[in-house]
Amino acid sequence: MSRQPGAEEFVPETTDLAELAAAAGGCRGCELYRNAERTVFGAGPATARLVLVGEQPGDQEDRAGEPFVGPAGRLLDRALEEAGIDRGEVYVTNAVKHFKFERAAGGRRIHKKPARGEIVACRPWLVAELRAVQPDVLVCLGATAAQSLLGPSFRVTAHRGEILHVDGEVQIPSAPAVVATVHPSAILRGPAEQRDEALAGLVADLRVAAGAL
Q: Alpha-carbon distance 194 to 187, whole Å?
């Protein structure tokens, strides 16, 4: 298998989020752009002190071109509100900027987890966003986001809700505190009778992040 070229050659030397987003639209750093509708870049204020990083855009995000606007985004909105965090003051993005999926019967697009090579290939965009925003605190929603920044052996279940720091191979000038927690989509996929408890756990982890600001 040929090595993924990676996004690095497509990332401009700028800390302007609008310029980065425009450049990301032409990224060919991995093969995921071929099937996705569009690149889904991050959204939120450039001055945000808190950044939330998810895995990848889902079906609705891919169609809308915006992160966290589907069912998981609505659950995240609820968790942020319960944690006392104003989403309007938060920058939200994903470790991977294109929707990876497989077709189900009837043509429905079903989420498929990004491969490690795809996560690494896309990481220059995430690092560029973090250098532009320079957050004080970074929340990794789920294993893909956490492993992108904290290394491939990182386990959310072992360290969720702790104050951590970014892996040495990733350089972010603001040196943000990092909190890892579950992705809202994992709560939605879980047993219905356990969702309230799972949501409470996500809210508790977000409160840890808010407390680190």
A: 8
Spans in the chain with pLDDT lower than 50: 1-3
pLDDT of residue 4: 55
Residue 1: the pLDDT is: 37
How would you classify the pairing of strands 137-141 and 177-181? parallel
Instruction: State the pLDDT at residue 2.
Output: 42
Q: What is the 3-state secondary structure (H, E, C) of the chain?
A: CCCCCCCHHHCCCCCCHHHHHHHHCCCCCCHHHHCCCCCCCCECCCCCCEEEEECCCCHHHHHHCCCCCCHHHHHHHHHHHHCCCCHHHEEEEECCCCCCEEECHHHCEEECCCCHHHHHHHHHHHHHHHHHHCCCEEEEECHHHHHHHHCCCCCHHHHCCCCEECCCCCCCCCCCEEEEECCHHHHHHCCHHHHHHHHHHHHHHHHHHHHCC
* β-strands 164-165, 177-181 pairing: antiparallel
Q: Does residue 59 contact residue 38 with C-beta atoms inside 8 Å?
A: no
Asked if 51 contacts 67 with a C-beta cutoff of 8 angstroms, the reply is no
Vertex 176, ends 128 and 39: CA angle to 5°?
A: 30
